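Morning. Coffee machine broken again, so started the prediction first thing and wrote up yesterday's gels while waiting. Chain of 632 residues, entered below exactly as on the submission form.
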Amino acid sequence: MTAVTTQPAHSSRFPVLEKYDVLEELGHGGMATVYRAHDLRLGRDVAIKVIHPHLRDSTEAVRRFAIEAQAVAKLRHPSIVEVYDVSSASEREQYLVVELLRGITLRRLLETHHALPAEVAAAIGVELLAALAHAHEAGVIHRDVKPENVIIEHRVRRSPSDEPPPGASTPAGPPATTTPLPGGSHSSSEPGDRITIKLTDFGIAKLLDAQGVTSTGQVLGSPAHMAPEQIEGRDVDGRADVFGLGVLLYECLVGHLPFQGSNPAQVLRRVLEGEYASAEQEAPTVGRTWSRILDQALAPAVEARFAGALQMRDALLRELAHLGVTSPRGTIEAWFDDPPGFVRTHEATMTTRLCASGDEASRRGDVLAAAADYNRALAYAPNDPSLLKIVARMNRRSARRDVVRRTWPWAALALLVAGVGIEVAGARRAGPLSDAEHASAGPRPATPVAAPVDTTPTSSPPITPASARSLARPLVSARLLPRPAARHEVRFSDVEPAHGVRVSIDGAPPSPLDPSGALVLNEKAHTLTFSCASDFCEPITRAIAPGDGAITVPVRLTIKPARLVIRGLPGSHYFLDGDPKHTLESGETGNEIAMSQSAMRVVKVKELETGRLSQGVELRAGQSTVVEFGAP
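Came back before lunch.
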């Protein structure tokens, strides 16, 4: 839950705290409510996160709450919210005291503006990646990087020299984010001094130097922002936050999340498979370079992403510098000062800079870089006649190269066949050549090949990859075409459990299984091995016979039972609460507990003789859990 000041939401009851005067509610989340309060000892306003009453008795909830204090208290960075105080174990209310931020969440900003100019979003990313790099160096992984957990404070400059003349209009940024600087003037003339960006909510952070803080396989975070390894319950490192920052930046640039679906299961599947539309495709003004940076951050494979937050930050800074943005924070500040005015000026400036960059790339022969720059410039100025001519000319060149690349093997084959035919025909007419004639004939001149006809219109859309264009194939006899390879199309039915199933083909490393998709294999025999993430299922193997065509394979995996060890008093009997017919044995041998629907199950154990009931016990497939009953 973020500590952001908004309109007061007065309540008839505020928590009573000894050292703080609670003034108003600012917001609430799944674990806690955030209040604005006054520190009675130090005389300053603070934000206090108070855990919900129904969670106070939950050991896990209180532990996670304490983790946030431990995680953030060890961090000191201008872009990370500062922790001031935490409640003691003896206090009735469990709370965390942090600095009070007067700003707006990035989520609210996106709800108002839909998307941000690419360079503004990248500049925000630079600030957040610096904060994440600091946290990672201290051994803290955030694991829930999303717009709701980013607060931006914009302070309006107020000084006598800044006052507009009478009757002049003053551009205004987003009203909920602006606050005057203390004293009515700014303290520095450096660009960006009036912008503060804070990363909040380390409530589910994983401390790399702590053991047993989170349960193995436990999924914590927001599904649409989680990295694949986080969804699957595997160990995570700083690259999980790189992925989350990639999701955040994609939404800032495009206006919607990269991974979308009609239900959470679809979203999770698309995250695991890396299935999303490129940012450049969704918003052409994003351009190829920003889109490629996002693609690397959002790679499903951990090793394919940026090695860390600093490496991604450097990539953003390089492209900003290439585009002439020397002060990222100043760019953010300029946008907040006047969003509509900034956009108008920025589009014109970017068009000029992109054309200059495209010209330079074209002169050095880098056609792809030139095309990327011109395409993005054309997205800003779609009716610019000079840009249309440049893009049309590059389209024609690209089309010619593409035709030559696609047709030269067939042309060579046709020439070979034609040459053989001419030679045979000549031999039939003139008979075989003598050895002397062979020696005197010399090399045969090559048959000229007509250049492909350029049919590209003079005014054309932006350059597209060759794979996206439809080109006519050369007319070649069907006898010369290779036979299509036979293939198996393997589909799946009755997939259980519904999520987390993986498939290995012929012993290769397993990958997530798409229950609604199909595997395309060649005509040879294959072995498919199905398993579950975190090894909570019994693997099964299916043999695929050689041949071709479509087949359907049922995939029903058995979730491993959990083992419940009860350490109780001699002669006592136990059973799961609600299931008295099945008694459980005490002792180290333990009891197998079926896990038919899920890899995790919460149960309570009851002692028959005394009626005593244990706290909720979390059972996990394939693992042992101990419950202890001491003397009553």
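The first helix runs from residue 59 to 73. Going to sketch it on the whiteboard this afternoon.
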